[in-house]
Amino acid sequence: MKYFLILILFAGFLITPAFAQEEKNPSLIIDQIEIDAEEFNTVLRDSKIVNLDEIHAISWQVTIDNNLLYANPNGNAVLRFYDQQYDDRFIEVGMGPQPHNKFWIAVTTPKEGYIIVHKDLERGWYPEAKSIISYTDKAGLTVNNGARIVVTNLDIGIFAIDSYSTHGMESSTDPPAITSGSLILDFLSGDPAKNVFAFFPFYVAAGVGVIVAILFLTKKRS
After folding, report:
1. Domain CATH number, residue 166
2. What is the pLDDT of residue 4?
3. What is the model's pTM?
4. What is the average pLDDT across 173-188?
């Protein structure tokens, strides 16, 4: 019986990684978009909304890699991510030029409208690092500026990204905000509940526990 139990335990550890590697979450969506510098040389009223190929919902993460070369000290690189259900709902990310690297996060709510939930005028974002915006329908919105978390579990309701827009100039008569470079967005989203093998290690552990209990009772009775 001792060798039988060892065999079961070994099989559990051996099978679990194999299933974990072979079985992927069917809801998983991975996408990358590179935004050219010229896309930021516009004012807000002239910005265009770009539809994404896929809708990112339930649980998503957007990684921002800013490699833009700023030309105007008053210029910015501003991103707006729009909600699928309501066109007037968005999450805004603003990134100013060096050396100050201004950084802000704003959201819209049905009651308050446009609200800035975080703003740093100095060292707000880091060119050598990537900023990360993450969301789950359970925990809300969290933002990391590349060095630290600046927004934590902010409740913004249900939010599914289906489009985005860019701008960076305060006035149409201003010089261009950006001269060259690009900004890369990496999207990752999915429904964790649709990964059928997410709890497989726990099933194995529970099964082994039942077997151990049975063997223990059998040995005790004998």
Report:
1. 2.60.120.200
2. 42
3. 0.78
4. 96
In the chain, the amino acid numbered 116 is: I
**31 plus 131 within the same structural domain:** yes
- 221 and 120 share a domain? no
| Full strand arrangement of the beta sheet holding 77-83 | 50-56, 161-167, 77-83, 90-95, 103-109, 113-120
**CA distance linking residue 152 with residue 140, whole number of Å:** 8
Segment 4-13 long-range contacts (CB within 8 Å, at least 24 positions apart):
5/211, 5/212, 5/215, 8/208, 8/211, 9/208, 12/204, 12/205, 12/207, 12/208
DSSP state of 175: P
148 in the same domain as 213: no
The residue range of the domain holding 117 is 26-191
Statement to judge: residues 131 and 221 lie in one domain: no
Q: 34 and 18, same structural domain?
A: no
Quick: pLDDT tens for 125-174.
999 999 999 999 999 999 999 999 999 999 999 999 999 999 999 999 99
Return the SS3 of 135: strand
Residue with tokens 């910015």: 76
